[in-house]
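Propose amino acids for all 250 sites.
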């Protein structure tokens, strides 16, 4: 299984022209990459522009609604995302939880539909600074996973989990690889309990939070993650290229 590197462009860049330019530069930086699976998650309006230009770069969405069609003003369904060429959907990012009031129950419903239409969820889990200080990190991770995946049976476990300590997102406050390693092991154990040892081995666990070209390798080699979720640095083609290339050389 290849490592997975996901670029979360968040609500950037501001225009379609700039999105096309960014994508062209990213593609150029990644032209020699064949050892890492790369997924770009642009804002929704740019998906159709980037579709068809992607070649060995896959497409993902940053969010979705949980119904396939219907009277849900403002909603975008997993079915529509699939039709646009997406293969992955980020669910439960701390920014969608905070800014759009996304709850564990909503996340569970989204994951069910994403799986039903045969897209691959990237479930984000992570503790806030306060929760870590209060010693609740393990509880937040295990409860978050239990609630997000409640009642979900996998025929084939096509699931990715991103451990993203909220205090490390967009802050430059790096989670040290040892701390991240402990969180990864906890997630791994939880997955084995929920889905069995054989199925859990195919679940990729990603690290996210202030990843850059300097630290990317340590999360793969020291902390044992199977991939990375990259925000800020994914908007800089050189930095993003450096991240992908730093882990593809092994
Ligand atoms: P960051 O964002 O790399 O800018 O910290 C990560 C994320 O939000 O997924």
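Proposal:
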């Amino acid at each position: 299984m290849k490592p997975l590197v996901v670029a979360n462009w968040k609500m950037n860049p501001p225009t379609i022209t700039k999105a096309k330019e960014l994508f062209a530069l990213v593609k150029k930086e990644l032209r020699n990459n064949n050892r890492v699976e790369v997924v770009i998650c642009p804002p929704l309006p740019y998906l159709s522009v980037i579709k068809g230009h992607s070649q060995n770069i896959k497409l993902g969405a940053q969010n979705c609604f949980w119904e396939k069609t219907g009277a849900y003003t403002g909603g975008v369904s997993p079915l529509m995302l699939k039709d646009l060429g997406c293969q992955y959907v980020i669910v439960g990012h701390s920014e969608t939880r905070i800014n759009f009031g996304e709850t564990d129950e909503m996340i569970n419903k989204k994951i069910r539909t994403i799986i039903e239409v045969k897209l691959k969820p990237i479930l984000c889990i992570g503790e806030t600074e306060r929760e870590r200080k209060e010693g609740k990190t393990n509880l937040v991770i295990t409860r978050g996973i239990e609630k997000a995946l409640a009642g979900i049976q996998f025929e084939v476990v096509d699931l990715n989990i991103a451990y993203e300590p909220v205090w490390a997102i967009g802050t430059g406050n790096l989670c040290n690889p040892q701390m991240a390693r402990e969180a990864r092991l906890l997630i791994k154990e939880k997955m084995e309990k929920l889905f069995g040892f054989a199925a859990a081995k195919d679940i990729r666990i990603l690290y996210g939070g202030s990843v850059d070209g300097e630290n990317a390798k340590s999360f793969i080699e020291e902390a044992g993650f199977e991939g990375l979720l990259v925000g800020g640095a994914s908007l800089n083609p050189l930095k993003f290229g450096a991240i992908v290339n730093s882990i593809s050389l092994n």
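The longest strand covers residues 86-91. Residues 103 and 168 are 21 Å apart (CA to CA).
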